[in-house]
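Running low. Got one?
___
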Amino acid sequence: MSFTYGDGADEQITLLRDEIGDTKINPDGIFPEGENFGDNRLTYLYNDEGQHLGRFVARCCEILARAYARYPTVSRLGPADETVKASEYYKDEAARLRALYGYPATQNIRNPFSGSIETRYRP
């Protein structure tokens, strides 16, 4: 998995990484274990979402919500210390962005957080 950002990186990859905040190399990446999205994965997700930046960010948030689901909490320090469940944050952000930008016309609308398998009825 390749990680490029800033100088020497493709301008589009840098833009996509800026949008999702995946700008620091492993072990400080955006995923719970410090990994990053690979360049090829970013390009694939962007194209799969119809090259729409808002839908791309929503898709990344859906992926991150699933990745953080097994981690209980994340502490945020500041003027008011608080504990936030990262998976809930990403899930809510994805839902907000999907409500704003929708889904690409080529995809079926799905609930990425349902965790269930589609039921098929046979005659």
Observations:
- The longest helix spans residues 53-68.
